[in-house]
Amino acid sequence: MLLDHKVAIVTGGGSGIGEATARRFSQEGAAVVVADTRFHKAENVAREINELGGHAIALEVDVAVPESISHLIQETVEQFGRLDVMFNNAGTLKPGTVVELDVDDWDFVMGVNVRSVFLGGKYAIPAMKQSGGGSIINTASISGLHGDGGAVVYAASKAAVINLTRAMSTDHAAEGIRVNAICPGTIETPPVQRMMANAEALATNLEAHAVGRL
Prior knowledge:
Blueprint: E1 7-11, H1 16-27, E2 31-36, H2 39-51, E3 55-60, H3 66-80, E4 85-88, H4 103-130, E5 134-139, H5 143-146, H6 152-172, E6 177-182, H7 190-195, H8 199-207
Parallel strand pairs: 1-2, 1-4, 2-3, 4-5, 5-6
């Protein structure tokens, strides 16, 4: 399989894109570390992967805290002996214009969405070099490409992720480390479900998709 004998970390692995990716990585043969602030969510995903014959563990992580990310990487290497894939996927959003948004909300979203990618790379890359290289995947968004009204900090944070990815890929390509970003559209994840709780917001987003669904 594509990821036989590989070890992958997925942040935000307890739900949404992270959960789906953790399951897929396992199906492709990887040992998976499901990392999330909500340990019970990560634990459920890891348990279900193991029940299906995969190999996964759950770890609690605060992606904006250096010590937490450092511990995540160290624990992964101690458990599995290597690190091949780092999926910096954890993210959050707060709606609002620059006038409406609280400064604390700006700092919080930037911490979860951007600082986490910096920290993920900072601590994962040395471990990957010891394994002969690896792959870092960062979750950005189409919002980071064109900006979305009413979600200024989310758009700004995802734009930062895109350029951070470009810079990281340039810096570390010669070390055998690939760094890429994915830019999903509107995906039916828990944060999006909360934002689309009213019918008008949901209808507007459905109209923006040619297939008429999220």
